[in-house]
Amino acid sequence: MTVEDLHRLNVKVQKGAVQLSELMPTGGFTEATSMIIRSSQLLHSYLEKLIHAETEHQLGDAIERVEDNLDEITFVLDQLEISNKNQPINFIDEFLKEGYEMLSLYSRCVNQVMNEKIPNED
Fold first, then answer.
1. Torsion-angle region of 121 (φ positive above 0: left; ψ -120 to 50: alpha; else: beta)
2. pTM of the entire structure?
3. Taking burial as the number of CB atoms within 10 A of a residue's CB, which of 10, 12, 41, 89 is the most buried?
């Protein structure tokens, strides 16, 4: 998967978050989807900064910010999953699958970039 493919998945999850907020336009869904959209946008931006980092400081800053956004999205998805257990809604189940898949792919991409940028100490 390329960075562009990852970006397309990110945008798809953001659009799904908008649809999710339309299920219940007031209350918790709106706040949760806003957090997902904001963190998803930041996540991709910081991934690109990580890829292009040239100094140790830039690398460390980008890694920290990517991890913060991954954690925030994970937290929100976990809360949605918990709230969807009693009366499951198929759309939310599908949204959760895509969201967790996106997180997994970003994590793998970050690990790959880190492995390439941080020298192996053997």
1. beta
2. 0.86
3. 10
Residue (of 68, 77, 65, 82) closest to 102 by Cα position: 77
Distances (CA, A) of 74 to 35, 47, 107, 118: 11, 16, 12, 26
Distance CA 106, CA 54 (A): 20
> Is CATH 1.20.1440 the classification given to domain 3-115?
yes
Per domain, the residue ranges of the chain are: 3-115
Give me the phi and psi of 100, to 5 degrees please: -65, -35
Give the burial string for 18-33 (b: 16+ CB within 10 Å, else e): eebbeeeeeeebbebb
Residues near 7 by beta carbon (within 8 Å), at least 6 away in sequence:
44
Sequence-distant (6+) residues with CB within 8 A of 49 are 58, 61, 62, 65
